Structures are given as structure tokens and as C-alpha cells.
Amino acid sequence: MASNLTQMLDRLLQYRLIRFALTGGIATAIHIAVAFFYLHLIQDNVFLANIFGFSLAFIFSYFAQTLLVFKNSVNWGNALRFFLVQFGALLIAQGISELFVDMNSYLRVILVVFILPIVTYIIHKLWTFSDPQPPQHKS
């Protein structure tokens, strides 16, 4: 039975979207945990809580997405693109969060961390980790 479960898990992990969801889930948990910790123990400031949560989740996410999901090499080029995508998504999510300023702070953090993955997967797939086009040779 354990062998069948292992085989099923191995088959699922062959799919990039499954690996993205798993590593994204861990990054999301990191973001939420850090943000909630900040809100509870330091200050009720959603913006700062999300900045700290984003920062720690970003470090984990970059390495996990690069190495495990997109099976790419760690380098400054894709690190910069990854940061631009993640930071842009954070700004958009924070803007959306500000639309719900009267909502509970914890729910606003949840709103932010569920918007980010949808947007970022598409952009990372199409831009951050896309295979560069080989140069065209003139005949």
C-alpha cells in the first residue's frame, strides 16, 4: 500500500503545476505565519506584516520554484525577473487589500496570499523561466 502511495506521489510530482502548488503552498504558509506573527506580537499593520511575510516567503519561493518547479539554474537574471514579478504581484495584491480596509486584518492577509499565486504562475511560466529563443542566423 505504501508503495502504491509512493508511486502515485511520484506521478503527481511529474507535473509542474502540482510542484508549483506544493512549493507555493509552503511559501504561502511562510508568508501567513510571518505576517500573523507580526500582526499579533509586533504591530497591527497589514502593510508591514505583508512586507515581512513576503520577504521570507520570497527567499524560499525563489529557490524552490527555480530548482524544483521550473528546473532551472539559480542565476541573477531569473532572480531579478522573479523578484520583479513577485514584487509587482505584491503591490497589486496590497492595493486590492487596501480596497478592503474595513475588513479584519487577518482576512486581508489571506486575501493577499491567495491572489499572488494565480498571477505569478502565469508570468513565471511565460517570462521568468521561459527558455530564451536561440539567436537567428542570417543566411
What does this molecule look like?
By secondary structure, the protein is an all-alpha fold. It has one domain (7-128). It has helices at 2-12, 16-41, 46-69, 76-99, 105-128. Helix 2 (16-41) packs antiparallel against helix 3. It is globular. Residues 19-129 form the GtrA/DPMS transmembrane domain. It holds the Pfam family GtrA_DPMS_TM. It is found in: Membrane.
Spell out the blueprint of helices and strands.
Blueprint: H1 2-12, H2 16-41, H3 46-69, H4 76-99, H5 105-128
Helix pairs in contact: 2-3, 2-5, 3-4, 4-5
Total helices: the number is 5
Order of helices and strands: HHHHH
Name the helicity range.
Answer: over 70%
The parts where pLDDT drops under 50 for at least 5 residues are 133-139
Short summary of the structure?
With 139 residues, this protein is mainly α. It contains five helices and no strands.
Name a few traits of the molecule.
78% helix, 5 helices, membrane, mainly alpha, transmembrane, transmembrane helix, 139 residues, GtrA/DPMS transmembrane domain-containing protein
